[in-house]
Design brief:
Blueprint lengths: L7 H26 L37 H13 L3 H6 L3 H7 L2 H7 L8 E10 L2 E9 L3 E3 L3 E3 L2 E11 L2 E4 L5 E5 L3 H16 L3 H5 L16 H5 L4 E2 L3 E2 L7 H7 L3 H4 L1 E6 L4 E9 L2 E8 L5
Antiparallel strand pairs: 1-2, 2-5, 3-4, 5-6, 5-7, 8-10, 9-10, 10-11, 11-12
Length: about 300
């Protein structure tokens, strides 16, 4: 966030301008008194560019090589370096084309802002494909769901491509494929049943502990029905998010990707009924909000 006031660069420029103005005024005063004595023109100091032909700037030194005994080890070291935020090491393990794309460690580091952080890595099998090797890895992430980053899954199965360059194994910057591992749909029904049971007992604190966030999406007044009606509430089988009657609050908050990971669980009480929208948070489902028209 920009700081208020004048920046350091502006202050320097202003100081130079003021100094120049003062020199100009002084010179004018001297000129009014007597003719100025001609002075030899100062030569311009030339920068020594002898090591960089045609005046080009020095390039970034090449990344220090990182040795790996196999494709699987290269992918493992690459992902574990990212988990430690050791992006200099993961950059050194990139293949030539990927290094050229990102140019520097700083460029590679900046690119990680759009990727889910890595917590852990388990290497699976590998297979040879067109002169390269594809390595399967199960990657764990700090699970989260929010309207800025959307869903960060707890686990993904990723396929990475590695190949030998210059006698060493190197990894492509992007995975060949990524598959999100979600908890089972039956677990969503069980989670919603526990949530609505707590609401029916007016245990709002206990219910909040089973939510993805304190604030629910959708017409939140529906969540007050179990405490008002009491009695028995029943959570039905899980349904896809495409059955939502009013998906717009969720689409606005999380984008179209919400349709791939969110689920609906209809609940029925003594009088009222509605559907609960749940999100996967790691290996568990958490209540994200409610939907008014999808419980039928």
């Amino acid at each position: 966030m920009p700081r208020p006031g004048i920046s350091r660069r502006q202050a320097i420029a202003l100081g130079i301008g003021v100094a120049g103005l003062a020199v100009g005024i002084g010179a004018a005063a001297v000129a009014n008194r007597e003719p100025a004595t001609p002075r030899p023109t100062a030569s311009v100091q030339r920068l020594d560019l002898s090591n960089h032909p045609e005046g080009t700037q020095a390039t970034t030194p090449p990344a220090r090589p990182v040795a790996a005994a196999s494709a699987s080890e290269a992918v493992q070291r690459f992902l574990r370096a990212n988990a430690k935020q050791d992006f200099a090491t993961s950059f050194a393990l990139l293949d030539k084309a990927s290094q050229e794309d990102h140019q520097t460690v700083a460029g590679w580091t900046a690119a990680q802002a759009d990727r889910p952080p890595v917590k852990g890595v388990t290497i699976g099998g590998e297979r040879s494909v067109a002169g390269a090797v594809e390595v399967t890895a199960t990657v764990t992430h700090p699970a989260a769901v929010d309207p800025f980053a959307g869903l960060t899954p707890g686990r993904t199965v990723e396929v990475w491509r590695a190949q030998r360059e210059g006698g060493r194994w190197h990894v492509a910057a992007d995975p060949v494929s990524v598959r999100t591992l979600l908890p089972g749909d039956a677990d969503a029904t069980a989670a919603v049943q526990s949530w609505v049971d707590r609401l029916a007992r007016c245990d709002n604190g206990g219910a909040a502990a089973m939510q993805a966030a304190a604030e629910l999406y959708g017409p939140v007044g529906l969540a007050g029905a179990p405490c008002q009606e009491h009695g028995a509430w029943k959570a039905a089988a899980t349904r896809g998010f495409d059955a939502a009657g009013d998906p717009q609050p969720y689409l606005s908050a999380f984008g179209p990707e919400v349709q791939t990971w969110a689920r609906l669980v209809p609940v029925q009480g003594p009088k009222a009924r509605f559907a609960v929208v749940v999100a996967p948070l790691g290996d568990a489902w958490r209540v994200l909000g409610v939907d008014p028209a999808s419980a039928g």
